[in-house]
Amino acid sequence: MLGIKFPIPNSQFPIPNSQFPTYQMNKNLKLLKLGLYYITITVLVVYLFIIFLPLPWGIGVGLDPSWTYGISRAAADKLIFGRDIIFTYGPFGYLVQGAALEDNFFAIAFFRIGAHLACLGVTVAKLGQLKTNLQKLALVISVLFTYLINFTTDYRVIFTFLILLSWDNILNNKSIRWWSLGLGAIAGFCLLTKFTVGVSTVGALILLLLGNLYNSLRSQSNVELSILALVDAIIAATSVAFLFLNPYPLLSLHKLLICAALAGVFGTTTWFIERQQSRKQLSQVTEETRTTKFNNLTRQLFGWRGFYWVYSLSLLITVLASEPSLLAFIATSLDVSSGYSSAMSGVASPWEVRCALLGVVFVLALLRVLARENSLGFSLSLAFLLWLTFKHGFVRQDGHVLIFIFSLPLIVSLIIAKARSMRLAKFATGIRLGDGWHLRSRCWWFSPLYMGRWGDAI
Radius of gyration of the chain from Cα atoms? Predict the structure, then answer.
């Protein structure tokens, strides 16, 4: 009106006709790239799912087929592991390594296909959390390596669990206890499949939560939550392992329900007493100091915390006093595993051991840097698995060395995925490429010497 022009919001400016084709083309290119990315991921996942689909194998003749049949037959006959049969596999060991019988064919097929699908699903979900192409490429190549070596179901379960532990939202304060319960239950079930799988999953989870507890103590925040999450995982793993160790799980479920009922009665009663006591103390202002101390004590023992600790104590007593014994199962599996490893150990090539130790040193250096980036728990979990694969590979020798060699790329890729600084990610990528060269130079399993050794054994 007076020559004054009021500013117009940017959203109301129309795109000039001369720039509209360029804008529309850029938008279409972005949509095309995004579509191609998801199509590529989908095709790759479907291809891997079909081409590497694990199927049950039947009864065979020889050393390995004999014990694969044995664990399947023991489970079918409802023998008690740790008493009637002592081995490094548990009552669900037939799901990962057992021979297919008429009674368990579909159970084995569904479990192995489910583990295969879970590995791909967890990997794809992790790819969605990663921000850089370097992190995504490292993880994809590492998972492909595990398929190329044809990792058995037991190690596929271990590495799927490890990738799951690398998710960022597990240690979220709002969901950490739910994750602890769920992952603890999975780890408890894994303990009943194979001793190595159980030790790997339970140990990795406990170390992750211990690292989180250390960070909480250091920062003096959410200490109680971190302690409860750790106890949640232990309770869940113990309850599930105790429940399914019995060939007749309903009997064990009955004992667990009694523990829960006792804890529920105690928790409800103490909560009611605490509530009545609190009402009385509101009118006694002169005894403020004493009531404060009383509240601090009862708050830790009464109410839902009382239910929590009474259930833990009753579960411990039940596990120690019940048959079949979970402690006997773990102790006998440990004895067989240590004796079996000692009997099967061999002297490795010095050059091979030096290369492996060099890789371990580099990975430990990366884990130390990662721990300083507020990922102490996950660094401890990776270090624990690194030690297990190294011990298993260079104690058993032969093809077991491949488990360690192909575990290194996956461990390094998870370090890259958790790294906050690009400097650490790039350095880890250099280690990853060096390990790839090591893989190429040590493909001795395809050599005539290696095939000849297997031929002599057969």
Answer: 28
Q: Which two tokens stand for residue 315?
A: 């579960």
Both tokens of 44, joined, read 């790759």
- The pLDDT tens digits of the residues spanning 127-137 come to 888 888 888 88
Decide: 295 and 278 in contact? Cβ < 8 Å: yes
CA angle 385/386/392 to nearest 5° reads: 85
Tell me, yes or no, if the pTM score tops 0.70.
Answer: yes
Full DSSP string of 383-400: HHHHHHHHHHHHHH-TTH
Within its chain, how far is the Cα of 93 from the centroid? 18
Taken as a whole, the chain contains a residue count of 458
d(CA 281, CA 293): 12
C-alpha dist (Å) from residue 219 to 173, 212, 215: 14, 11, 6
Phi-psi map region of 65: left, alpha, beta (phi>0 left; psi -120 to 50 alpha): alpha
**Every domain of the chain and the residues it spans:** 52-247+324-444, 248-323
On the question of pLDDT at 54 being above 80, the answer is: yes
Tokens of 361: 């040193």
Give dist(CA 190, CA 316) in Å, integer.
20
CA dist 372 and 360 (Å) reads 19
User: What are 194's strand-pairing partners?
Assistant: 89
387 CB neighbour count, 10 Å cutoff: 13
Neighbours of 192 (CB within 10 A): 24
Burial label for 405, CB within 10 Å (0-12, 13-18, 19+), is: buried
Whether the CB-CB separation of 267 and 298 falls below 8 Å is answered with: no
CA distance 412 to 418: 10
* d(C-alpha 211, C-alpha 217), whole Å: 10
Instruction: Give the pLDDT confidence of 163-192 residue by residue, as tens digits.
Output: 999 988 898 888 899 999 999 999 999 999
d(CA 115, CA 101): 20
In angstroms, the CA 324 to CA 244 distance is 10
* CB 111 within 8 Å of CB 160: no
